Amino acid sequence: MRANPRGVKGAEAIFNAKVACHARRTDGAGSQALCSRRISLPQAERPAPDATDPALPLREACLPFMPDPRLAAPDDAAPIPTGVPGLDSILEGGYAANRAHLVEGRPGSGKTTLALQFLLDGARLGERCLYITLSESRRELASVAARHGWSLDGIEIFELVPPELSLDPRQQQSLVHSSDLELGETVRLAIAEIDRVKPQRVVFDSLSEIRLLSQGSLRYRRQVLALRSYLLIHDTTALLLDDLTAEQDDLNLHSLCHAVIQLEQLAPLYGGERRRLRVVKMRGTHFRGGYHDFVIRRGGLVVFPRLVAAEHGRPYEPDRLGCGNAGLDALLGGGLDRGTSTMLLGPSGVGKSSTALAYVVAALRRGERGLILSFDEPTGILRRRAAGLGMDIADAVADGRLLVEQIDPAEVSPGELAAMVRDAVERENVRLVLIDSLTGYQSAMPGEQYLLLQMHEILTYLNQQGVTTLLVLAQHGLVGQMSATVDLTYLSDTVVLFRFFEAGGHLRRAVSVVKKRVGPHEDTIRELGIDSGGLRVGEPLAGFRGVLTGVPSYHGRVLAEQDGPDLGSHERE
Fold first, then answer.
1. End-to-end CA gap in the chain
2. Coil, strand or helix at 94
3. Cα–Cα distances in Å, from 389 out to 119, 267, 354, 360, 508?
4. Taking the complete model, does pTM exceed 0.90, yes or no?
5. Could you tell me where the DSSP H helices lie in 389-490?
6. What is the rounded distance in angstroms from the CA atom of residue 453 to the CA atom of residue 418?
7. pLDDT of 77-94, one tens digit each?
8. pLDDT at 15
9. Taking the CA atoms of the chain, what radius of gyration do you get in angstroms?
């Protein structure tokens, strides 16, 4: 490649012409320069060319496309807070300073709320903030803020759309219908307002109006490019909102913006809407990919970053936790190990929740804190049932040692549920978690494969935190062959199996441990009794065969002497 014959000065002229071109607008009548700024180094700072350097011709030819590192400040594109709880964690610190970010989503997905939180956080820090709106009026924005309990004091709001059917001549002098303006005039007014306020944070709502006025993808791209370049030159951090009202999503914006955040609103067949976001791109910065659930409630938008168990962990001392019932603890080889998960599997009414509750009460007696996520049972009924079994938890709930959360799976997203567990473990120092039941939890998930992935992350996280986890899963049927809607046994460290069986004209319960990864356990099947005194675990059912089928056969002492210890008194009868 030969050297640029015009030399360094000629290359700088080409570069300055390109920057000025980015800041021009083009309409049907011709071109008018809105702004231009020469970007060049002072003569004293320019490095003297080395005539002996063989790479000099290449560097001269490429000068317009190779910005000097001295043009960028050390803190350029440094992360700044978003003002949205949870979003900073996803973006590894926040938005990039002095860059333009595209926030896109269908109407109702939460773009305006997210943008207002960004400006409110800037106003709180003493920064100059500007909201340029082409789609909503000042009155509508004030109404949105009031419903969240916010005040827009400290935020400049510039309207390019007046209130509907306004005849106030004073407003007509300051407000302009975008439909009555040409594209160039709309962009000029917006840039003039930026010049007046000199903001550090800007929200432009929305680009769909620019798209409609452009009437062409090329012209639209040029106008957005000019606006982005103008904001960059003036060191402004900007959010450009797009409501995706075009027939086809315009991917041109993705290449022009430093970051792209997509907001989605999903409407299930039953229950409240689900909202989620995804970071499509963010240049030069690591971010947490995938979908993240979020909600909009009074006070703003809250994001629940997707749980990644590998990022969390803390050392803990191994321990074995009993429930105080000698028979049940013997069946489990002394109790449950800390930092493991236990699944209680069986038909409805067989005693799974009561058995799990015994371990919760035992943890409270040891001075530990617990959490119960109840999907199937109201809190009031849970307390009365526990009191009827001699396991009163009312005092522990009242003083905060036991947290009981009643979960409506139609209203709570999986991300919010995982955030609830994390908050209890990390802030409330909860050491035992009971999820009752996974059948209800599955209702909150869109499909079986997502339930497996979600539960894998939650259980791994709890195990790494040294938390003992109890999972209740109801199987279909009462007596005979059983089945579950999803197989989660491989995720659990311990599996306790419950069954109904018929004997002597009575319906009885049986309990056994079919799996335990840590430590020994009995391979026997014992009878389980539940009464006002709590749980009663009998001797092994050595004289029965086929207990797990629900219709066992009794073979008496001969089989008992061959296969196990002597029968208990209740079997002999």
1. 102
2. coil
3. 54, 42, 8, 13, 18
4. no
5. 394-398, 414-427, 438-443, 448-464
6. 12
7. 899 999 999 999 999 999
8. 38
9. 33
Mean pLDDT of 460-465: 95
Give dist(CA 284, CA 174) in Å, integer.
41
C-beta separation of 456 from 450 below 8 A: no
Does residue 46 surpass a pLDDT of 70? no
How far is the C-alpha of 37 from the C-alpha of 460, rounded, in Å?
55
Residue that wins the pLDDT comparison between 398 and 54:
398
Does residue 439 have a pLDDT over 90?
A: no
d(CA 560, CA 572): 11
- Alpha helices by DSSP H, 263-412: 326-331, 352-365, 379-388, 394-398
Question: Buried b / exposed e across 249-261, counting CB within 10 Å, b at 16+?
Answer: ebeebeebbbbbb
Helix (H, G, I), strand (E, B) or coil at 343: strand
Q: So what's the pLDDT on residue 321?
A: 92
Report pLDDT for 459: 94
Tokens 């008496």 belong to 556
In this predicted structure, what is the pLDDT of residue 481? 62
- pLDDT > 90: what percent of the chain? 50
Give pLDDT tens digits for 2-41: 444 444 344 444 434 443 444 443 343 333 333 333 333 3
SS3 category, 403: strand
Helices (H), 429-564: 438-443, 448-464, 556-563
- Cα separation, 458 vs 304, whole angstroms: 14
Beta carbons of 237 and 268 less than 8 angstroms apart? no
- Given a contact cutoff of 8 angstroms between Cβ atoms, the answer to whether 496 and 355 are in contact is yes
pLDDT at 517: 92
pLDDT digits (tens, 9 = 90+) for 510-527: 999 999 998 899 999 999
* Three-class HEC string of 95-126: EECCCEEEEEECCCCCHHHHHHHHHHHHHHCC
User: Which residues face 370 on adjacent strands?
Assistant: 402, 432
Q: Which residues contact 404 (CB under 8 A, 6 or more apart)?
A: 371, 372, 374, 379, 382, 393, 397
Question: In the numeric block, which tokens belong to residue 288?
Answer: 């947490």
Tell me what the mean pLDDT of segment 476-489 comes to.
Answer: 68
d(CA 506, CA 502): 6
Reduce the DSSP state of residue 329 to 3 states and report it: helix
Structure-token pair, residue 99: 């860059």
Do 239 and 202 touch, CB atoms closer than 8 A?
yes
Query: Which two three-digit tokens encode residue 455?
Result: 């539960």
By CB atoms closer than 10 A (0-12, 13-18, 19+), residue 549 is middle
Chain segment 110-127, per-residue pLDDT in tens: 999 999 999 999 999 999
Listed in order, strand segments (DSSP E) in 330-401 are: 336-337, 341-347, 369-374
Position with higher pLDDT, 442 vs 15? 442
Single-letter amino acid code for the residue at 227: L
Rounded to 5°, the CA angle 456-458-464 comes to 100
Nearest to 383 by CA among 392, 370, 374: 392
- What one-letter code names the amino acid at 444? A
Report the DSSP beta bridge partners of residue 276: 264, 293
Q: What is the mean pLDDT of residues 420-449?
A: 84
Burial class (CB within 10 angstroms; exposed 0-12, middle 13-18, buried 19+) of 515: middle
